Amino acid sequence: MSKNTVSSARFRKVDVDEYDENKFVDEEDGGDGQAGPDEGEVDSCLRQYPWRNMTAALQAALKNPPINTKSQAVKALAAGGVGSIVRVLTARKTV
């Protein structure tokens, strides 16, 4: 059996009884209003011929994901961003 010493009880400095789920306040959504990447910017990077800037197109497609949002509508609107990413990767493969 282990001995109950003073040093073994030092890690328990947090009083778990003070945390109440009824007092919990969720933080507001910190989104900036835009849902997903800018399709025009992705298209303009893909259409630059003959140098087709794939790196900039992929960065534009990955820009502004709906992180830290709880709104299902915002996430659904940003699902179109997946299509942009697939389009950039497909264009990269065809080069």
From TrEMBL:
Q: Which GO terms describe its cellular component?
A: Arp2/3 protein complex
Q: Region (Disordered): which ranges?
A: 21-43
Does the record bear DNA-binding in its keywords? no
Q: Which Pfam families match?
A: P16-Arc
- Protein keywords: Cytoplasm, Cytoskeleton
What compartments host this protein? Cytoplasm, Cytoskeleton
Biological process, per Gene Ontology: Arp2/3 complex-mediated actin nucleation; regulation of actin filament polymerization
Q: Does the keyword Cytoplasm apply?
A: yes
What InterPro entries does the annotation carry? ARPC5, ARPC5_sf
> PANTHER family under this entry?
ARP2/3 COMPLEX 16 KD SUBUNIT P16-ARC
Query: What's the family?
Result: Belongs to the ARPC5 family.
Q: According to its UniProt entry, what is the function of this protein?
A: Functions as component of the Arp2/3 complex which is involved in regulation of actin polymerization and together with an activating nucleation-promoting factor (NPF) mediates the formation of branched actin networks. Arp2/3 complex plays a critical role in the control of cell morphogenesis via the modulation of cell polarity development.
Question: What is the name of the protein in this document?
Answer: Actin-related protein 2/3 complex subunit 5
Lineage runs: Eukaryota, Metazoa, Chordata, Craniata, Vertebrata
